[in-house]
Specification:
Blueprint: E1 13-21, H1 25-32, H2 37-40, E2 54-56, E3 62-69, E4 73-78, E5 87-96, E6 99-109, H3 112-133
Antiparallel strand pairs: 1-6, 2-3, 3-4, 4-5, 5-6
Amino acid sequence: MSDTTGKTKDAGWELGVRTTVAAPLPVVWQYLLGDGLATWLGEIDALPTEKGAEYATKDGVKGTIRSYTENSKLRISWQPSDWPHDAIIQLTVKETITGTTIGIHQDKLANRDERRMMLGHWKNIAAAFDQHFG
């Protein structure tokens, strides 16, 4: 295995996690931006969807909406209160024969250790999605 797995030319370190759940895409999207927000983003009353809008979770994560496409893709900046920098999270959904694939991509991570930590985090989130829709 390469020591540079996940290293990009100009976006720091990145990772990607996917899972496919047995539920229709609109149901999955509604969950991700509704009851499921606390699972992947943290406790927040509602996530704005307007480009440029700012958000903050109750546990100190803050960021900005970079792009939003209904039933398709959400791209946000994401910065926990104890990080000196932000990262980018892209959440996507895609219809498949067996249900809906949820994709989580994160970039602008600082280093290999941060990537490793976040990869574990997102794998746990994907498992929680599997459990919810299972």
